[in-house]
Design goal:
mainly alpha; Hypothetical protein af1432; eoxyguanosinetriphosphate triphosphohydrolase fold; 61% helix; globular
């Protein structure tokens, strides 16, 4: 629970807020967090205003995470395991929850896959993108991961650029690092990882400050990560079903059949005016049931977590966990594979692939041969990047990463508009 600020001067002005409240405010007021209001959660280009975007999912996960953290904090105080206030533990978990998706590119997981596919494809090879890249730098580009990019956003890109980023506390950063290994780790093969090599130094600093065990070139998980993961799992389990009903790709009766077991006040539920209100009641009842169960299971696994041992996700083993996993399976079968969603994702691939070709091509053209004049098109593209454009002093790997930073920060709507304008001008 270290309040030390990573990348910040040791002395700072007095503030009436708690250190972890400062973290919360820095996240909420950041541009990267604000952009989540137009980034896909599950459904790209959804026209229904009730369907969640990344911003709303992050806020909801933060609410659940705060409740989990406070409940665990009370149990830890009662067990004599900490003198930290439960509200502070709740605040750290909430911070990590609201920032956990801040590195996701436009179009959600489809956007991640599109970036990976482009860097693994023929065009990247034709442009000689990887000249001068180390094996680790190449691996990071070919396995773009929203979690790792999120670490880059909060420690390098936002606020104090290349000087600590948001300068969050070690505790918040530790709770945020869900996958404490890089793309070079064997666990990242076909899976997720938590940081790029460019941010390894930041990770080493805050994990050491938190006293988290190093495990070779990786680390054990910070114990509070398990609460952040649980809050995320619970929220998207319920939200995916609720949103599926909202847009008409999932029948309400399927959701009701799964979640009705949690409803204690059948009279209030029976008086629900419509399906929307009924879904809200089902969601609330499910949360009231699972949060105490998750907190209790955390306390049962606490010693193993503190010892740096790998522990299964809390939702897998706790009471009611099977119902939530069934909810995820239902969404996978009925919502994620629906043609409406699939068509939108295919369009997202096209948008990001074209933008990568344009911007990476322009950057590399500007750096290869000083004796050859740069095309007007490339000059214009780099001008559009503004302050985000690579400088002439950067090496090629850093310049390419700068382009990825720029494109990953785009919202769904902005990426679509830029693509339409650029490709339209090319066609003319």
């Amino acid at each position: 629970m270290s309040p030390a600020r990573i990348g910040a001067p040791k002395r700072r002005r007095p503030d009436t807020r708690l250190e972890f409240e400062v973290d919360h405010d820095r996240i909420v007021f950041s541009r990267a967090f604000r952009r989540l209001q137009d980034k896909t959660q599950v459904h790209p280009f959804a026209e229904n205003d009730h369907v969640r975007r990344r911003l709303m999912h992050s806020i909801e996960a933060g609410s659940v995470g705060r409740s989990l953290g406070r409940r665990v904090g009370l149990a830890l105080v009662k067990a004599g395991r900490t003198t930290v206030e439960p509200a502070e533990i709740g605040q750290v978990v909430q911070n990590a929850c609201i920032v956990h998706d801040i590195g996701n590119p436009s179009f959600g997981h489809s956007g991640e896959a599109a970036i990976c596919d482009w860097f693994r494809g023929e065009e990247a090879e034709a442009l000689r993108v990887f000249e001068g890249c180390s094996a680790l730098q190449k691996s990071d580009l070919q396995t773009f991961e929203g979690n790792a990019h999120g670490m880059r956003v909060v420690t390098r890109l936002e606020n104090y650029s290349n000087a600590g980023g948001m300068r969050l506390t070690a505790a918040t950063l530790g709770a945020f690092l869900k996958y404490p290994w890089s793309s070079a780790d064997s666990r990242a093969a076909g899976g997720k990882f938590g940081f790029f090599e460019s941010e390894r130094g930041f990770v080493a600093e805050f994990m050491d400050e938190c006293g988290v065990f190093a495990q070779g070139d990786a680390w054990a998980r910070h114990p509070l990560v398990y609460l952040v993961e649980a809050a995320d799992d619970v929220c998207y389990s319920l939200a995916d079903l609720e949103d599926g009903v909202e847009i008409g790709v999932l029948g309400f009766e399927r959701v009701e059949q799964l979640l009705i077991q949690f409803v204690e006040d059948q009279t209030a539920y029976g008086a629900a005016r419509d399906e929307g209100r009924a879904l809200e009641l089902l969601r609330s009842a499910a949360l009231r049931a699972v949060i105490p169960s998750l907190a209790g299971h955390f306390m049962e696994q606490r010693e193993a977590m503190e010892a740096g041992e790998a522990v299964a996700p809390l939702l897998d083993e706790c009471e009611h966990g099977a119902t939530f996993r069934a909810a995820q399976a239902l969404a996978e079968r009925e919502v994620f594979s629906h043609p409406r969603k699939v068509y939108a994702e295919i369009g997202a691939f096209k948008i990001l692939s074209d933008l990568l070709s344009c911007y990476v091509g322009a950057v590399l053209e500007s750096r290869r041969d000083e004796s050859v004049n740069q095309s007007a098109r490339s000059v214009h593209l780099l001008r559009l990047m503004g302050n985000a454009a690579p400088t002439e002093h950067m090496d090629n790997p850093t310049a390419i990463r700068r382009v990825v930073d720029y494109l990953a920060g785009m919202t769904d709507g902005y990426a679509s508009r830029v693509h339409q304008r650029i490709m339209g001008s090319r066609q003319r």
